[in-house]
From TrEMBL:
InterPro entries: Kinase-like_dom_sf, Leu-rich_rpt, Leu-rich_rpt_typical-subtyp, LRR_dom_sf, Plant_receptor-like_S/T_kinase, Prot_kinase_dom, Protein_kinase_ATP_BS, Ser-Thr/Tyr_kinase_cat_dom. One of its GO terms (molecular function) is ATP binding. This is non-specific serine/threonine protein kinase. It comes from Theobroma cacao (Cacao). It is an enzyme of class 2 (transferase). ATP binds at K468. Residues 440-716, 748-1021 form the Protein kinase domain. It is a single-pass membrane protein. The keyword Transmembrane applies.
Amino acid sequence: MEISSLCLNRKYQEYATWNIGFGRIPSSIGNCTSLTLLDLADNSFDGLIPNTIVNLKNLQKLNLAHNALTIESSTLESSFINSLTNNMHLRRIVLSGNPLDTMLPMSIGNLSTSLEYLWLTDCKLHGRIPSEVGNLSSLVALRLGNNELTGVIPNTIGRLQKLQGLHLQGNKLQGTILYDFCKLSSLFELFLSGNELSGLIPECLSNLTTLRNLSLSSNRLTSTIPSSLWSLRDILAINMSSNSLQGSLPFDIENLKVVIEIDLSKNQFSGYIPDSWNLQSLEYLSLAVNRLQGLIPESLVSSLSLEFLDLSHNKLSGVIPKSLVQLHLMYFNVSFNELEGEIPSGGTFDNFTARSYVMNKALCGAARLQVPTCRTGTSKRSRRPILTLAKILLPIIASMCILPQMYRAIKHCLKKRKDPLLTTNRTILYEEIVLATDGFSESNIIGTGSFGSVYKGAMKEEKNVAIKVFNLHPERGLRSFQVESELLSNTRHPNLVKLMNSCCDDDFRALVLEYMPNGTLDKWLYTHNYFLNLLQRLDIMIEVASAMSYLHSIHVIHCDLKPSNILLDEDMIARVSDFSVAKRLGENATMQTRTMATMGYMAPEYGSSGIISEKTDVYSFGILLMATFTGKKPTDDMFDGEMNLRLWIYESLPHAVDRFIDVSLLQSDQEDIAAKTKCVRSIMKVAWFCTAESSLERKTMAEVQFELHRIKSRFLIDTELIECEEMPREIVYPRISYQELKLATDGFSERNLLDLGEFCVVYKGILKDKRIAAIKIFNTQRRGFESFEVQSQVLPFIRHRNVVKILKCCSDVDFKALVLEYIPNLSLQKWLYRIYPGSNILNFLKRLDIMINVASALCYLHTMRVIHCNLNPSNVLLDNDMVARVSGFSVAKCLEKGIGATNTTTMATAGYMAPEYESMGIVSEKTDVYSFGILLTETFTTTRPTEEMNRRSWICHSLQVVDTVVDLNFVHDGEEHLAAARRRCLRLILQLAYCCTAELSDERKTMREIESELVRIKKWFLSDN
């Protein structure tokens, strides 16, 4: 579509985005008078910005960033910026990254009073900042950084009471830091670095209690830092480097309890470094190039998160504290001081080189550090008696320790022959559990139940674990142990708690499970000072529904679903636990049991007759939904006689949701009450159908999961949380420096290279906390940095078990990198084509599970309006449990609200692109569906898509001759033909792939339909085997 005819298309009458633009923006754009959003950012447009944009009277958001656009500036008052004063509805103007080469006109103060964002960073602006900018009373963010602005900062900026971000860095501004800034009570970020500001730092900046980032570096500031500034207890980053600040460092620095970065380097500070560094969040500390003297304080070891410490070029004396070895320092520099004594060894100190210690008074240590060897003061005579005593005692002590262990190990092995367990990682000894739980200390108990207790423990192999010790009296405790160990050994799902080890002794049974640091859902719903917002609760319910849907697909009934059996990991992702009374159904859809579950959550047929089925869990899930969003327990005192939780909610539906919704959900955000009420109303309708009296009238868990996903999508749209333009351009991650990345990858060594792509290279690295990570470094070409921007904007909003996660970020001017979780089994591509050394053949069920994982990830991405655009086997990674994680978001796109497709000039991998993507650059959700269809076919045929002239015709032809096209590795154990069940399922899979790859995008299925179909195929396959 030509941009000049844009407004003739009904789809673009209110919102217009363009992603493959070049040349000039036609003046006819002014005919699109209904436009409220015009986004032409990140294209190759050049020439003048047409003044006809002034005709867009309804325009609210204008984004022309990162093009090569200029403006007519012969007379300022007739310039483009001046013409925008006629657009009275404008809320956002983003022109950053264009060579406007102009001055800001005084008429800037006449822009819309509704204007919230004015971004003109890197636009070659010159001249002064007009004082009229203070008229923009609604301004939230003003960004004029990296220009050539001169003169003083106008004091009228102090009028902008709603201002949260002020970015004036990288200009030639003079004068002093205004006391008027102290009036900006909402200010969150103040960036004034890289100017020519002089004079004092105003004491009243301490009044800005909302301030989180203060950057005053590279100016001409003098005098001392006001003592009041250290009272900003919530500040995260302070950078005052490269000034002429004097005085001593105050003890009040310990008040900054949450600070992450402090940079006071290249000043004239003198005196001693204060001995008060209990700053738990501090990661970066630089006091280099000052005049500090005295000792390096031992208290630095209290800053447990410290990774970067630079004390070089001072006058420090004494020794380097050995306690610093306890820190996980990635960078350490004490060069050019007057230090003496032994250089500590061990920990990360073994990685530091001679550069960290050069030009000191009398340091000694290892020869590799280019310092003298330290002299030892211990004589051989004094050591001889100790060595003699050690030779006598050590064998005796060793024997005393080993013999009991040997006895118990032999006993344990004999016992295992009589009472075998299903496969776990390994069985452990009773003594190990005693040691891990500190003798079953009551202080380590994290849960109790009718069949035993759960302890928090620390094993050698794991940081923390949960140890479930079963009470073997009565006999049901032993039965519970056998049921739970059998089920957990044979189930694999990201939302089920994971079995690590087990212990099976004469009169002792225990399971070692992964530890969930955030406890139970019950705690978060019913304990004071714990709070989950609506989206968190909905995510948790979707995750529980996913786990239950999986269990039902393998005919397992949980039988005791309730908040205390839902655990939350460090990322608040749900894990279903406690299978003490679970049942595995045979061929029948129901069975009868005498084991009772928790009152209030049991289905009527379970409580009255002991009959259980999949619909029993559905009922419990419905009650769980009600409890989660009302904050009421089904056993609450208010429910007596005929009144119960279900009836109480029913009487308030559909118009009086506010009578039962958890009031804390409405108090947290007054703006979205209507959207929240609508969302909870829809959830309660699902809960109502789940808890029908007749089990036949209840939904299946797969249907429930689908409904909850759809409710979440609608909620995100209603609250504009998935409108990409609302995503902040700068995401704050835990930061990591270039030096740390270089150290983690052993100097970007080729032996650590994992992947090499068009936009980036990926290395394997070891972080300071010993975690293995994948470090993605983007090339310095424009496309590489654009890829970095795309991924750093998209991934922070993604929270899904099947999508790779960002851990840290490095964003320097000429270096961009993302630190991602390391996925040990590498890519699906390497497994399909046996590239990975030691890779086994992927059987049919594993391939199907992987495709379900990928489908689930794409469903989620599409609810967030994110299009992956480059789905192929190399972008599907496999973790330790062979669970798939979608990665490779280098060319991903995020759709604006109300727009179903967008254009792009960035091409993806040949063979996987949909026809409309390859020919016209149009991408939509159906683009990913096409790629998934190709991936689905490749996964089960192990034939690359580039090997066939017409892939879809080939699939169609192959549907009737399945045996001849599928991967021959499926034929196991001497079989000459595929089993009937596998052949039938493979035909269904190829039929699904054929539907995915329709030429017309409208004829393709949605990812939600595809996921449901794959789950159904898996269920059929399992039932036939």
